[in-house]
Amino acid sequence: MADSELCESDWHMYYGVGMEVILTGTGSPIPDANRAGPSTLLKAGDTHILVDCGRGVVMRLAGAGTMPPFLAAVVITHLHSDHVCALNDVLTTHWVMTQGNGVLKVYGPPGTAEFVERQLHALERDIGYRIAHHEPLTEGPRVQVTELNPGDSFAINDVQVTTAATMHEPVAPTIGFRFEHEGKTAALVGDTIPCDGVDALAADVDVYVQTVVRRDIVEQIPNVMLQDILDYHSGVVEAAQTATRTGARRLALTHMVPAPTPEQYPEWIARAGEHYSGEIIIGDDLTSISL
Questions:
Q1: What are 229-275's pLDDT values in tens digits?
Q2: Which of 158, 166, 261, 272 is deepest in the core (most CB within 10 A)?
Q3: Nearest-angstrom CA–CA distance, 274 and 262
Q4: For residue 77, how far is the Cα from the chain centroid?
Q5: Cα dihedral angle (96, 141, 146, 74), rounded to 10 degrees?
Q6: Do strands 250-257 and 287-290 pair parallel, antiparallel, or not at all (unpaired)?
Q7: Distance in angstroms (rounded) separating the CA atoms of residues 243 and 83
């Protein structure tokens, strides 16, 4: 569906005002029936920006009141599979729903262009079948990839975007993002340990969104590969300390390992609250934060 085909009621459903951050996927690589893979949707007026593309993201976009054709851009923090595995679904759905007329803009770290190219190569047979079957489709998906280096700044429509290096080694480079629109700010930094780049992005923001692990719980699990995640993710305590240090007005927790049940949310909030006095947000997929 192209923008020009929307009726007035559709417009009000898909486009809002102000800035809204929606935790479209709060899960992790560990499969969870109730949590999609890592992704976050930013709505700034009529500009919709998707940050990362974890499993199930297109369904969660629908739940958040948007669709791939309405995305101004997809922004990728890093190329770990759990953050990009559903990009092919976004690409294909955007292509089909715009009847081949839309261009999907994708921003990400070096390596993103190659990743997108290989996704399209993997979809070659499907693309060929659809072109053969649907007269409006005359060529494959149109994708405009911009590779970023930490420190780059740019605009997506009227949203100003600032980047900085995060720390998720051996994954490198990894990039965090700060979005500004009409005086509202949001920092979405992806997987990282505390670092100068995160501090710069989260300084005085209205909401700082951090992927987190419960270090105290994971340390008790006798699994070598699970223990490995501790050295390149922020813990709940560290995220809270970062929020305090940077003066962030809200702290939102996502990509939670191990995923808490709703009954456990107060425990997570209390743990963060020992180190941060602002609003702490934790919840299910599609938890929404209006700024």
A1: 989 999 999 999 999 999 999 999 999 999 999 999 999 999 999 99
A2: 166
A3: 20
A4: 8
A5: 20
A6: unpaired
A7: 23
Rounded Cα distance, 163 and 147, in Å: 12
Name the nearest CA neighbour of 87 among 114, 55, 42: 55
DSSP 233: S
Catalytic residue list contains 46: no
Average pLDDT, stretch 106-120? Answer: 98
Q: What are phi and psi of 119, to 5 degrees?
A: -65, -45
pLDDT, position 27:
97
Instruction: Count up the domains in the chain and report the number.
Output: 1
Indicate which CATH number applies to the domain containing 219: 3.60.15.10
Mean pLDDT of 49-78: 98
Amino acid letter, residue 50: L
pLDDT of 16 over the 90 cut = no
Host domain of residue 58:
3-290
Q: Tell how far CA 268 is from the center of its chain.
A: 21
Mean pLDDT in the chain? 94
- pLDDT over 90 percentage in the chain: 91
